[in-house]
Each structure stands twice: as C-alpha cells, then as structure tokens.
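Repro case for the chain-ordering regression, as requested:
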Amino acid sequence: MKKMIVLLMTLVMAAAITACQSREEPLPISSTPSASENAPVLEPKSNEPEPESSHILIAYFSLGRNAEYPDGIDASTSASLVLDGEEMVGTTEYVARLIQDNVGGDLHSIETVEPYSTEFDAVVDQNHEEMNAGTMPELKESDLDTAQYDTVFIGYPVWATNAPQAIFSFLSQYDLSGKTVIPFCTHDGYGAGSSCGDIADAIDGETAVLDGLAIEAPDVPGAAGTVAEWLGNIGMEEQPGDSIEAEKTAITITVGDMVLDGVLYDTPLAGEIREYFPLTISMVGFGGREYYGGVDFYPENLEGGQTTFENGDITYCESHHNMAVFYAQTDDPTLSVEVIPIGKVTSDLAVFDELPRNVDVTFALAE
Ligand SMILES: Cc1cc2nc3c(=O)[nH]c(=O)nc-3n(C[C@H](O)[C@H](O)[C@H](O)COP(=O)(O)O)c2cc1C
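-- result from build under test --
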C-alpha cells in the first residue's frame, strides 16, 4: 500500500512563489544577452556524481536535450531554448542549473531513446498519443544510482497540463522511496496543472514530496532570485556537507582607508589566489552591484563557475581574467559570464555604495 506524505509549506512567502502552480505576478525580466547565431547545444554541465558528500540529485527533462535541433538554432527560433552564458540550454535545464548553483548536487538529464520532433505540433500530437495510451517512453541507458541521494529534484516542462510521459518512465524506473522529492517545472502560462499530484502518486513507497516551483518560460532567464528564495522557503539552503564555504580562512579587505572582514573558502582556486596575498587590485565600480579589476596571474583550478551571485561574494572570472566583489543585487541578477566564488566579505557592505568609481582593494590574510 502506497504511503505518501505531502508536506505543505505554510510560509506565506512560499505560497506566493511556489506551490507548484502558476505565478500570478511576473518575475523580473533578465537582460541576459541575445542569442549568438551559432551557439551550440552543449553537453550538460555535470552528469557525473560529485564527491561523496553530495546527496542531492537534480533530474530534469527538457525538450532541448530530447529533440535533435539543427546546427545554428538560436533562442529566437526555438521557444524551448534559452542562453546560459554562451551556451544554449532547454528552459527547464536552465532552472535545474539555478538550483544546482544554490544547493550543489548532481544534474541528471532524463533522455528518451527516441528523440522528439523539433516541430511543436508534432510533439503535441506525440505527447497526446503517449498520454492516451499510457506509454512510458524508453529512457537512454544511464549509470545513475539513486541510492546515493536522499533529496531528488524532478524538473520538467508542463505538457498538456501534466508532466511529459518520460518523467513517469523515470519514476517507474528509479526507486525514490524514502527520499525527499521536490518537483519544479516551466510552462507557457497555464501553470503546473495536475503534474505535482500525479508525480506524487507515481512514486512507490513512503516519500516526502515538498511544494514545488512553477515558472513561466519567459521569466526563466531572470529567475535566479525566485529560485533562491523558493529554496530558502522550503529549507533547501546550501547543505553544509556540499558547501564550498564549509572551511573558511579569515581575511581582510582594505578598501581605501577602510578595513573590512571577510573569509576565503577552502577551495583549490582560493588556495591558488591566496598565494598572491596581500593582493592589491585596482578596481572599478560597475552596475551598482560590483567592483572589479584585472589580475596578472592565471589560476588553473577553475571549477564551480556560476552566473549568479550573493551579496558579499568575492569572485574570480576566467573569461574576463579579473576579480570582483559583489555588494548589491539588482533587477538583473543573471551575469553574462561565469564567476567563481572564492570568498566573501562579511562586514557591512554599505560602504560600497559610497565608494568612488575607481578604488584600490587589498585582500590579505587576517592576523
Ligand atoms: C507538447 C507540449 C505541450 C505543452 N503543454 C503546455 C501546457 O499544457 N501548459 C503550458 O503552460 N505550457 C505548455 N507547453 C509549453 C512548455 O511547458 C514550456 O514551453 C516549457 O518551458 C518548455 O520547457 P523546455 O524548454 O525545458 O522543454 C507545452 C509544450 C509542449 C512542447
């Protein structure tokens, strides 16, 4: 007998942005740059399990990974693709990556053996046939081992007011009993439909299904803040065991004649950059959100890039070969290039609002 515990979140804010239903208010619109003409659809950022501490799986189905788009397709010719930096990804995959940026964990793209058409009407017809017949499309072979995860996010585009049948293939193939399952979806304005309930029903065994997140497709490029807020509301802040912030070294950040406190993370990149401390960088203010400046060394450990930031983040950017201190979120939370957090300013960030445009910033180990 199937037992299901559906945990309803009681926070008012959670109800406003989650509940696996259509948002009533639009999300901020991102100014993510327009599609470059030949941006290819690339491999997922990470399909491989991360180090042993990781116990979060983010499994998602996106049409972008399940249809064979011709070379040269861009976001303006396919409603189902958005740009992540310079990479074209499916709408739902983009949200999966935002979740990973916040909580870590492993991404897993759910892919069918037979690709779907790139023609919208053909996919609609095929989906109707599969739904009516109860077809479970065969999934590509994978060495995914769900036993190592205790929390599983399930992401999908809403198809005909439900999840695509491939999601039900996934749920029938992999044992999620005893785990916390968190649905999230993207849609074109009609909300999550019956998908969350049907997903909960499709899981055998005792499972906690948390309230999910439904985001309208055009809002996805600007959804970093909404995703972070939702994760906070459902208690899914960064897990200590997964966190790059778990071990920290105290540092000072001297800005003009002010000395701020901060921490440096215990990561290979932060370790490399620490070798150059005390490190003075001539920085310039940008966009009311950050001060950045070029560096004259070339680090080798470049894992962990992301296109979102938290206030106080000290980052290295490989593309622009610079370091930055972020101090304020703006209406445009999505960065056009990836940055890698190496530490954080822990003092009050208000000083950055008052700084001149050009300023020298010195990073040093605290005494
Ligand atoms: C076959 C099909 C059926 C769809 N049905 C719905 C629907 O019922 N309600 C809705 O709001 N959007 C619907 N959409 C739009 C998708 O949910 C939306 O574009 C989604 O963001 C695509 O995500 P993806 O790029 O990750 O595949 C449908 C799209 C397709 C291809």
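Ordering looks correct now. The CA atoms of residues 44 and 75 lie 17 Å apart.
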